[in-house]
Specification:
By secondary structure, the protein is α/β, with parallel strands linked by helices. The chain has helices at 15-18, 24-27, 70-77, 94-103, 112-115, 118-130, 143-157, 166-177, 187-192, 202-212, 216-229, 232-236, 239-247, 249-267, 292-298, and strands spanning 42-47, 50-57, 81-84, 180-183, 277-282, 302-305, 337-338. The protein has one domain (15-320).
Length: 339
């Protein structure tokens, strides 16, 4: 029987909002600052006179982080449709909560205490006891699932909530203003990517998550600063990204690279209609040679950063020369799930 904590903080099982800390050891220190030329993480992607906006988001923020950078509002007001990673409104449904609990449930009949070494399980039990949660309540879950839950609990504890996140904020505005809303992938598809986390050994996942919890606040402060400045250099010029690629290649490929490739097939089709769209995805999906910004530029689109005062590089490594500016093959509007 799966035991699910009934008094868990709101959003514990919301996958799209947990993504930035799926493997906290990987992302620790990821958002260090560097000198920047641009104001925030919003880009205009153009093909001739047709264009859409692409915004890098932070899924969890606190009330003090508002108002958001003005470039987000500029893009929002100029758009008829908002497109998010997934259906944000459905993420809190009981069906999704149950599906997530089933996804992280032990698959081989062994309990958590049997999958972790005695030392790591003891460390986890001590942490849960400090938070007033009995370790027995987590016995039926996979180690990576427990790592997700305790990370989410700590985010809540330091005041970071999905309701103040960029995605939730604009999803609510779009619903209020009657704008069209779409998503790049279904919640079921998003949950499918969780299987990549099973490639990380349980002791490593839980131990590093616990050890990095005391850094959560400072790491997120750096994240928010780099995000506000639209500093893609800061997101890729870190040892954490190199560690993610070399030590956790399966996770990196599944959660970032493959999803970016999937989204590119859909984003490319946005030029086939008359709407101006504002696509909003986690800021990590934009940076580096595997990021959407570089992929779009490789496709020959003009990519310019809103609020930019100087020409700023998209990634640390040189980008390939854009293809000739011929119009891409039009794709049907159904490639994005619209509501």
């Amino acid at each position: 029987m799966i035991r699910v904590y009934t008094n868990r903080p709101k959003g514990v099982f919301e996958l799209s909002y947990l993504k930035p800390v799926l493997v906290s050891v990987i992302f620790a220190g990821l958002f260090a600052l560097s000198n920047v030329f641009a104001k925030t993480s919003v880009w205009k992607v153009s093909n001739g006179d047709d264009y859409f906006y692409l915004g890098g988001t932070v899924h969890l923020l606190d009330e003090a982080d508002h108002p958001l950078p003005k470039e987000f509002q500029t893009a929002y007001l100029d758009s008829q449709e908002l497109i998010f990673e997934t259906d944000i409104g459905d993420a809190n449904s009981s069906e999704v909560q149950t599906a997530f609990a089933q996804a992280i449930a032990s698959k081989d009949g062994r309990g958590l205490s049997q999958k972790l070494s005695p030392a790591i399980h003891s460390q986890l039990s001590d942490f849960l006891s400090q938070r007033g949660m009995p370790a027995e309540g987590f016995e039926g879950f996979e180690p990576w699932g427990v790592a997700l839950m305790i990370s989410a609990i700590e985010y809540q504890r330091i005041g970071l909530q999905a309701e103040y996140g960029v995605d939730q904020h604009f999803n609510q505005l779009a619903a209020r203003d009657g704008k069209q809303i779409g998503e790049l992938e279904t919640l079921a598809e998003q949950m499918g990517f969780l299987s990549s986390l099973g490639s990380v050994e349980g002791d490593i996942m839980v131990e590093q998550t616990l050890n990095d919890l005391d850094k959560l606040s400072s790491v997120f402060d750096e994240l928010k600063s780099a995000w506000r400045e639209g500093d893609m250099q800061a997101l890729i010029n870190t040892e954490s990204v190199k560690l993610m690629r070399t030590d956790f290649p399966t996770v990196y490929d599944a959660l970032l690279v493959q999803r970016n490739k999937n989204w590119m097939q859909k984003v490319d089709g946005l030029f086939a209609d008359q709407n101006t769209e504002f696509v909003m995805v986690g800021v990590l999906h934009l940076a580096g040679t595997d990021g959407l910004l570089n992929m779009l530029q490789q496709q020959g689109y003009n990519v310019s950063q809103l609020g930019q005062t100087k020409s700023a590089p998209i990634a640390q490594t040189p980008l390939p020369k854009p293809k000739s500016k011929t119009a891409p093959k039009a794709k049907s509007s159904w490639v994005v799930n619209r509501r």
